[in-house]
Amino acid sequence: MTTVVLLRHGLTAMTGPVLAGWTPGLHLDERGQAQAAQVAERLRPVRFDAVVSSPLDRCLDTAGAVLDGRALELQVDDRLGECRYGDWTGRPLKELAKDPLWKVVQAHPSAVVFPGPEGEALRDTQVRAVAAVRDWNSRLGPDATWLACSHGDVIKAVVADALGLHLDQFQRILVDPCSVTVIRYSELRPFVARLNDTGGGVADLLPPPRKGRRRKAGADAPVGGGAGAGG
């Protein structure tokens, strides 16, 4: 079976409050650099046959940390790039949550086409990302283990496909910054071996602090899910 290690990039200054999309020149911040170094050390024992990245800087930074000390050349595949959010790119999530399209993104993402000439349909994002994974699987062979560094929505879409879920269910999947998700592909079916693995600790299992008032339902639901939407 071909083993694919899906790695989301680390934190940036935009992760969380802003929908970054294809914003150019967006590198990891200090937190993200620390995350990338930590996950690179976790993955050190794994022998990768290839490391493939989205072309966006935050992924190149993260994949570069994994490659440090390895005799491999970084491969770049545009199909692993973030969903093209069109006119939503660079806008605060609190502002986008007031847009009627937001509810569709959360409840019926397969119907969404993001606004503007550069906007992409989420279903097209899934098609290209799954095609990229399948192509690299075929290229590297059934005994290969390789790493794909990508973005929250993209990884969620690949996981949904592997689980046999409709894209409309992909918002139920969490993919946090610098988390590891592992899928093994056999001739008959994929097997999801790990999902959103951030390694050690139980802090994420603790209840969030109580708020002074209840938030409006759905107002804080991120487009990309997890800790940093649209990453």
UniProtKB/TrEMBL annotation:
User: Which positions in this protein are listed as binding substrate?
Assistant: 58, 82-85
The EC class name is isomerase
Task: Show the SUPFAM superfamilies listed in the entry.
Answer: Phosphoglycerate mutase-like
What InterPro entries has UniProt attached to this entry? His_Pase_superF_clade-1, His_PPase_superfam, PGM_Phosphatase, Phosphomutase_MSMEG4193_put
Provenance organism: uncultured Frankineae bacterium
Give a GO molecular function annotation for the protein: phosphoglycerate mutase activity
Q: Does the keyword tRNA-binding apply?
A: no
Record's keyword terms, sorted: Isomerase
Residue numbers annotated as active site: 9 (tele-phosphohistidine intermediate), 82 (proton donor/acceptor)
* Pfam families found in the cross-reference section: His_Phos_1 (PF00300)
Q: State its Enzyme Commission number(s).
A: 5.4.2.11
**What are the record's GO terms for cellular component?**
cytoplasm
Give a yes or no for keyword Isomerase in this entry: yes
Q: Please name the NCBIfam families in this protein's record.
A: MSMEG_4193
Where are the residues of the annotated region Disordered?
203-231
Q: What is this protein called?
A: Phosphoglycerate mutase
